[in-house]
Design brief:
mainly beta; 1 helix; about 0% helix
């Protein structure tokens, strides 16, 4: 059983500074897990018959990886399925928790691992097969394989649906709360036997005095700060900005479109974004001057263009998935280049290709290539994740090298920044 969490705020506030001033070099790519149809093979580091699709994996600063698995066969009734949480690292790991039969983990997961601490926490928005869900917290001492899940109490805020939870300092949780009438960004702090609502930002349908007609999918960090696209117009799309909501502080504008700010070079923003450990946001915008999509990093004072779409250049398109950003200002994102789907990292000075369509990678079955059996399906799934060192976790389809017609399913991979850190020693509650 996990007891009430009191994370050390000092640990969380002492995250390591950037270890590099420019983009790191990249070397080995390692497979963490692989899912495939059971008629093809049993997959890798998963119970046979398990399946995940359209998911993203997270990676912490010690290269632990976590992701949700939509379907894990029930041990007693293999034709029935439970949702599962995968945790591991450096090519080892497995399912450490499963939910109810026909249940769900409703969002991609994020790891909280304070620097120097020997424990991790992973918040989960868990459904039981109905319309509502609950907020749960998986916790594990890295020396002890017996992790577990406990409910995270949010009274007096009881939404219909919890989304995108992040565990922060002092045992507090930030999440998107969906009510029948609208949405809110909420932070709950556990203080002894009391729950303190330290942040509540609702749209106009939830909080009548709110200026926001719509709150888009947020990103939050261990400081319990939210960043999100918000709308002011009745159509919820024409007047929008990117806004920062610090816990316990005043919100402020990061970027606005040219309807709200006539001097803005941007006409619109993608719906989802990424927030670093402080106050810098990575988001895709559309330039008003030429209608081209650009990837930006901004703290509201300085805005840096990481990449821009150029039909004849390196980046031919930028995918409609959130990027990822670390505290060194390095941004990882999905794009298209001359060879098709790819994952890049950039810092505003240069770009590096991490992985892409047709690349050869080592898998548990031998040499494979990234891609699908037809060009219409995307190579990658979800959004990439990046840690403080610059290691990048990503999910992609894979097939045997030179044999596109054979199905090897989808794999979770990590491409390591060089020099590669020593293998992380951890215990996890997986079978195998």
């Amino acid at each position: 059983m996990i007891h009430r969490i009191q994370l050390c705020a000092a640990l969380l506030a002492s995250l390591p500074a950037a270890a590099f001033a420019a983009l790191p070099d990249y070397g080995a790519t390692e497979i963490q897990a692989r899912t495939n149809l059971l008629i093809n093979d049993e997959g890798f580091n998963l119970p046979p018959g398990s399946s995940f699709n359209s998911i993203s994996a997270d990676i912490d600063d010690d290269a632990h990886v976590a992701f949700r698995v939509q379907l894990v066969p029930d041990a007693a009734h293999p034709n029935q399925y439970r949702p599962g949480l995968w945790f591991g690292g450096h090519g080892e790991g497995g399912i450490v928790w499963t939910g109810a039969i026909d249940g769900s983990i409703d969002n991609d997961v994020r790891i909280t691992h304070p620097p120097g601490a020997n424990f991790v926490y992973i918040p989960l928005a868990v459904g039981d097969g109905g319309f509502d869900n609950s907020l749960q917290l998986y916790g594990q001492n890295l020396d002890d394989p017996a992790g577990g899940v406990t409910p995270f109490e949010t009274t007096p805020v009881i939404p219909n649906y919890y989304g995108y939870p992040t565990l922060g300092n002092a045992g507090a949780m930030s999440f998107q709360a969906n009510f029948a009438s609208g949405r809110a960004y909420v932070t709950i702090v556990h203080d002894g036997d009391k729950n303190i609502v330290s942040q509540f930002v609702g749209d106009r349908n939830v909080t009548s005095s709110s200026p926001y007609t719509y709150l888009y999918t947020p990103s939050s960090n261990y400081l319990l700060t939210f960043a999100a696209k918000v709308a002011y117009s009745e159509d919820m799309t024409s007047s929008v900005e990117i806004r920062l909501f610090p816990n316990g502080g005043d919100s402020r504008r990061i970027l606005a479109n040219n309807v709200l700010d006539p001097d803005s070079p941007y006409s619109k923003f993608d719906n989802s974004l990424a927030l670093d450990g402080d106050s810098s946001v990575a988001v895709v915008a559309t330039r008003a001057s030429d209608n081209r999509r650009v990837l930006l990093r901004s703290d509201g004072v300085t805005t840096v263009e990481i990449a821009a779409v150029d039909p004849t250049g390196t980046i031919r398109d930028i995918a409609f998935f959130a990027p990822a950003i670390n505290d060194a200002g390095v941004v990882a994102f999905r794009a298209k280049d001359a060879d098709g789907d790819a994952i890049y990292v950039g810092d505003g000075e240069s770009l590096k290709r991490i992985a892409g369509n047709g690349d050869v990678v080592e898998t548990d079955l031998g040499s494979g290539q990234l891609g699908q059996d037809n060009d219409s399906d995307p190579v990658f799934s979800g959004q990439p994740a990046i840690n403080a060192r610059g290691d990048v976790a990503w999910v992609a389809g894979v097939y045997p090298e030179g044999d596109r017609g054979t199905e090897w399913g989808s794999g979770v991979f990590v491409t390591y920044a060089e020099p590669v850190v020593d293998d992380v020693l951890f215990a996890s509650g997986f079978d195998g």
